[in-house]
Amino acid sequence: MKIGFIGTGNMGTILIESFIESNAADPSHITITNRTIEKALKLKERFSGIHVIEDQEKLVQDNEIIFICVKPLDIYPLLKKLTPHLRKDHILISITSPVQTDQIEHTVPCQTARVIPSITNRALAGVSLVTFGKSCSEAAKADIQTLFTHISKPVEISSGITRAASDIVSCGPAFMSYLVQRFIDAAVEETDITKEEAVIMSTEMLVGLGKLLETGHYTLPALQEKVCVKGGVTGEGLKALESGVQDMFNRVFQRTHDKYDEDISLVKKQFHV
Length: 273
Prior knowledge:
This is Pyrroline-5-carboxylate reductase. With 273 residues, the chain is α/β, with parallel strands linked by helices.
């Protein structure tokens, strides 16, 4: 299956790298383009078999699966430009959360889906969020699932939970890494530990925690219970966390949803759907 990528920004590049390194796709079956073509050429320096092309229409014509990896407000004008070159058997995949599959289907004549990846997919891990358009055939759905199974656990979601799911899967690594960074900074400020020591210990702790959860031996609440000895140090630390966190994560979801609603409103004005 030939795959085309329009856009080689952060997430587009992560998908290309991950598909190749997981053997989900051979570099010779991938064609890429970018508004700044030099960025695409840098990827070709690393994966010589990749095809780089400046003509977006030709990319569409020569490939079966087309990934649209551009900013939300750039998608509608791009789709209008590409529509004359899209066939019914094409599979068009957007990776942008504010653009809904029904909006894309209203604009193009081909099969459509939305897949929201995560930076964790770069480690061939984590979740990718999948929403299939009504036009998507069972064969196309299977192709998408197979492709993303190589680099993640694909989870099909409804449009109604897109933002919450994306906050957890896609934004979550940034949120959690911020908290761990503050954890490290506080350790350095309050104790004699060096930053280098704290970073190494925290990193290995996170890796170990992930592996522990992966085994299924403990749930998150069970982990807290196992580590927390009555009257011990961990319990005192958890009290400080309870006092500080309060409704912090509620506010995180409120802020991200407010921004999402704003983006959706702007996208609707373009698609008229």
